[in-house]
Amino acid sequence: MKSRFVILSILFLLFSGLSSRAQNIIRQSACNNEDIKHQADSIKAVLADKGFIVIKEASMTMESGYEMPVIVPLTQGTWYQFVFIGDITSKLYEVRMYDWNERQVVYQKKMWGDVDGNVISYDYIPKFSEYHMMKPVQENKKKKKDLCGYVMLLKRVSK
């Protein structure tokens, strides 16, 4: 009887330890950068004049050198515009986009010092209605862990 109690106690402790470690979840958090917010508002105004509406937008805290995946459903034949705005103090900005079959369909790279260095914007018309994944990344001179990034997905609704 004692041995059963010991075994059950050990199993209980083992499983309770596993469940407590499983709750260490990384959650995406927003950030607040007035310069980036101002840039985003300006870009939205320019694209609205071209017939685009915002479908999704979010600010996000990023770490230098690490991709931040953004998954969105896209509809075949629809004209989309994707925008990524990175922290102005970063030296490199990249966005890769993959279709559902994990084929890279877009790659853009900007460097600090380019005219619009911290903004990557591209249009895309998917061949199939499926989920796509955008992976923006920025590298900071000081390897910061709390970089601000901003993503927007817009859809063209009029010409």
Description:
By secondary structure, the chain is an alpha+beta fold. It has a single domain (34-156), classed as Jelly Rolls, CATH 2.60.120.380. Helix content is 23%, strand content 42%. The protein contains two helices and eight strands. The chain has a four-stranded antiparallel sheet, with helices on one face. A four-stranded antiparallel sheet has the order 2-7-4-5, with no helix packed on it. Strand 4 (90-98) and strand 5 (104-111) form a beta hairpin. The longest helix has 21 residues, at 2-22. It is globular, with a radius of gyration of 21 Å. The N and C termini lie far apart (79 Å). 22% of the residues are buried. The model is unreliable at 18-22 (pLDDT under 50).
The arrangement of helices and strands along the chain is HHEEEEEEEE
Read across the widest sheet, the strand sequence of neighbours is 1-8-3-6
Task: Supply Rg.
Answer: 21 Å
In the CATH scheme, the class would be Mainly Beta
Can you summarize the main beta sheet? Answer: 4 strands, antiparallel
Question: In terms of structural class, how would the helical and strand content be classed?
Answer: alpha+beta
| Overall geometric form | globular
In whole angstroms, how far apart are the ends?
79 Å
Please count the helical segments.
2
Q: How many DSSP E strands? A: 8
The chain-level mean pLDDT equals: 85
Low-confidence stretches: 18-22
Tally of domains: 1
